[in-house]
Design a protein that fits this description.
Layout (H helix, E strand, L loop, with lengths): L1 E9 L2 E7 L4 E6 L5 H11 L15 E11 L3 H8 L6 E2 L2 E11 L4 E5 L2 E3 L1 H11 E5 H7 L5 H6 L6 H31 L2 H14 L3 H33 L7 H13 L5 H30 L4 H20 L5 H67 L6 E8 L14 H14 L8 E8 L7 E2 H4 L2 H16 L6 E5 L7 H14 L4 E5 L3 H4 L4 E10 L2 E8 L2 H13 L5 H16 L1
Parallel strand pairs: 3-14, 3-15, 9-13, 13-14
Antiparallel strand pairs: 1-2, 1-4, 4-6, 5-6, 6-7, 7-8, 10-11, 11-12, 15-16
Helix pairs in contact: 2-3, 4-15, 6-12, 7-12, 8-10, 8-11, 9-10, 12-13, 12-15, 18-19
Amino acid sequence: MLTHLNIQGLAVIESLAIDFTGGFNVITGETGAGKSILIKALGLLTGAKSSVETVRSGCKQATVAAQFDLHRRSRALTAIQELGIPVDIEEDQALVLIRRQINATGKSQAWINDVPVTMASLREMGQALIDIFGQHENQRLLDASQHGFYLDQFLVDKNTRTAYEELYHQCLGAFREVYQTVASFQSRLRERDYLSFRLDEIEKFAPEKSDYDDALALCQKATHYHKWREALTVAQTYVEQGASGDALSHPLWEIARVLGALKVEDPQIQAIAAQAKLLADQVDDLSYQVVQSAQADTLDEGELEKAQGRLAGYQGLFRKLSVSDVDSLLAEYQKLKDELASLTGTESALKEKLTALAASAKKLNSLAAKLKSQRQKAAAVVKAKVETELQQLFMPGARLSVDLLDVSKTLAGLDLSAFGAECQRLFAEVAEVLSSLSEAGSEKALFLLAANPGEPAFPLHKIASGGEISRIMLALKRALAAGADSCLLVFDEIDSGISGKVADVVGRKMKDLAKTFQVLCISHLAQVAAYADSHFQVRKLGKKERTESQIVLLSKQESAEEIARLVSGPEVTRQSLANARALIERAQSL
C-alpha cells in the first residue's frame, strides 16, 4: 500500500506531501489543475522515462519519493529482495522507500531504501508494485494489434508464451544467419575463379621462407662478388710473390736456416731463429688460406641465374598481393587457401545449421499449437467475464467476441541450388513454419463487439463509443484483477464518456476492487467520488505570478461540497449539497 507521497519541483508542483489510506482513494479537481502530474509522479517511481521538461522552471531538480507498506509475501517485496536490497520486515510488513530524482540537465537517478538502482531494476520492481490504467489504454483497446496483449493476461499458464517468445527469437536469429551465410557464399562465389587463379599461381611457385632467404643471400653475394675476387687475387699475389717474386715466407725460412746453421750456443740467436721459423709457418698458413678461399669462392652462374629468377618471382607476387615481405606473402597464401576451403565447406555447414533450425522450428510449432489452445480457453474466459461485467455496466445485450486469426506472411526467397537438394528441402520446411508464425504465436487476437441484441459483431474501432470503450476497459481490468497481485491500482479518468447510472456502477465496482487492492482513481464524476474512502482535491493556485498545484485531503464536509460542485458546477447550492450528501450516504451504505 502507498502510504506517503512527496513531490518536489515537478512541473506545476513546487512542494507537495500526501498521506494516502488503504481502500478507495479518489482525486478530483478542475481540468488543468495538475491531476495528471500525480500520475506522472507515480510513473517516474516505476521507471518511466523522464525529460528536462519534467523539472519545474527555476528548480535545480525534481524529486519524487514514496513510502510503501508491503506484505512480506507481495510480489513487489520479492522483486526488491531479488535485487539484493535489504528490507526490514516486522510482523509480516515491510516499509519500502522509493525515490527518483531528475536534475535540470535531464540526468535521472533512483534509490530503493537508499540503495542506488538502475532504471531497468526500477521498472522490474514497478511492474509488481503499481498498475496504472489511463485514458491512453482506452485508445490502446481500439488498436487491434494490442488485443493479443489483453487476451494473454487471461492465460492460465504464461510460461508457454514466455518459452515460445524465447524460442521464436532464437529461430529468427538462426534463420537470419542462414540468409547471411548464403549471401556471403554467393558474394565469395563470384570471386572463386579469381581466388583459385591466384592460389594456383602461388602454389605453382611454391614459396618458402628458407628458399627466399637463400635466393636473396646468393643475389646479394653476387652484387659484391667481383670486389671479393679482386681482393683475394691481390692477397694471393702478395703472399705468393710479394718478396721479389718469391713467397712472403721464403725470406723468413732463409733467416731461420742461416741462423740455425750457426754452431753457436747463443740463446738470443736461437730465439731469433725460432721466431723466424714460427713467422714463416704462419705466413705459409696464411698463404694456404688465401689460396683456398680464392679457389673455393667461385660463383655458379647457373645457380645465380636461378636465384635471380626466384627472387624476381617473389617480388612479382609481393606486388600482386600487395605485401612487402615473404612472411606476409605466406600469410596471404594461407588466407587464400582458407577462403577457398570455407567455400567448399559452406554446404556442409549450412546443412548443419538448417538441420538444427528445422528441429527448433518443429518445437516452436508445437509450442505455438499449445499456446493457441490456451488462448482459445482464455478467449472463452474473457468473453464470459467481460459480458457479465458489461451487463452490470448497463450494456445488457452486449456480446464480446474474440477471434483468433491465423498469421500468414511471405518470407524472402533464397536460392540454394548451389547447396544441394537436402539444404533446399530443410529451408523450405523451416520457411513454411516461420511464415505462419509471429512473435506472438500462430494467431492474432481481435476483439469484436455487438453492443445491442440482434446486431452483428464488428471490431471495436469501428463501432465502439468512448463510453463503451471505458466500460469494456473497466470490465477487462475487473476481470483481470481477480488474479493480480499488484499493490496499487491507479485509474486515470478511465470513467471518461459515461454518466448517470453507469457512473454509479463504475464507482461501486471501483469500491469493490478496493476491498482487495489499494485503489487510486482520478475522476470527474460525482457518482464515483461518492464511493471514496478518502477524497482528495487538486487545487490550482496563483502564487508569486506562477501557477502551482496542491492536493489536499478533504474532510467529510469538504468532500460533500466538492461532489456538489461536480454535480452542479462552481456554485454550490443547498439543493446540490443535499444531492451530494444523498449520493455519499447511498454509496457508503452499499
